[in-house]
């Protein structure tokens, strides 16, 4: 469901504004942020494509390899994630390719089975949402929106209306246009927004669009980035 990419560059730090305090001590002043925009697969949750293919294969009484051919090799998933197909046409093509009817419920069950939320990350995001606006920007089609409340249940209803899919926006990360459309949706400026993703290519796309952005691959790295931007204090993940 997501583009291949490299995590190379995950240690690259964003440019924060240095400030000289009395006595000559140089301090870094974090920007004033209004929004933290998070990737889904690879940040909020771990996605196992093999599990999804196996689940759909059982439903269609075929092999996972055949499902992969229909969904991935043909470009069907990418077309759906890019907004080139609506959900009805996507499921129609999927059903035709597998030779059996695949409805939204079957697709959602397979996606939920293949995606495991990271509880430590969810706890950080829940705390973060009490301090700044939070949203999700993901390279996925609209059907994911129906699966999300089951995958990251602790973040709902907080995330209602705050999850943006590439399939709805009509463009995928790392294209700068997707970030511009996300900013317009949330009515914030690029310099007021921090974006985090597990793929550095997407971080580069966000930076090219003027956002603050950094790579995050687990709860520890997320906490490090949030602390750097003054959004999280040191210590356990508890309200403070």
UniProtKB/TrEMBL annotation:
GO terms for molecular function: hydrolase activity. Residues 1-24 are annotated as: Disordered. Pfam families: Hydrolase. The keyword Ribosomal protein does not apply. Keywords: Hydrolase. Gene3D superfamilies: HAD superfamily/HAD-like (3.40.50.1000). InterPro entries: HAD-like_sf, HAD-SF_hydro_IA, HAD_sf. The keyword Manganese does not apply. This is HAD-IA family hydrolase. The lineage of its organism: Bacteria, Pseudomonadati, Pseudomonadota, Gammaproteobacteria, Lysobacterales.
